[in-house]
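Catalogue entry: protein

Sequence with per-residue tokens
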Amino acid sequence: MSEELTTITLPPPRFDSAYSIEKALLNRRSVRRYLPQALSREELAQLLWACQGISRVKSWQAGRRTMQTSYRTAPSAGALYPLELYLMVKRVEGTEPGLYHYLPGPGKEHHAIELVQTGERSAELAEAALGQRFITEAAANLIIGGMVGRMAGKYGRRANLYVVLEVGHAAQNLCLQAPSLGIGVVPIGAFSDTAVRRFVGEEVEPFYILSIGKIG
């Protein structure tokens, strides 16, 4: 892992379009074949925001202090938000190939990615995912991991279940956003946890990989 992180501010997400949620539900499919085109920064930003971005910021006064709570696009038990998103970039316009960590905020229009490690490593990720080679053809691959400990203090033995449910909410958000952008996505659950932890760190439990790419 790199010692100094480079942070890239992403374009703000859009909050409206002519593409209905009903149409997204109708057209959502698992896609494993992608065009060799790069994703734009705007497309990447929209997908990441849909998955785990900030949708509302609530402020209140506590004595002389102004406090804030941020809410995200996917529900979270106790608003504890245990998910961590790691993006393996292969083809994104204006973005160096490498492994990035998603930063949802502060604020719903101020999100970013931080570079964790340079280099194109999709072949390694494909091997970690039991040889699913289409991972190497995707423009980017998103790893959704969870910090179960964030939930355990409040929810005890149910913490792992609540994290798994939240992963599903977040992944489906991305899968429904993708059709409006002409982007294909496939969620992947078959992989070696130990191998994927080489990308996200030992403290993060990997739950899902989503391959993302342009389609015709």
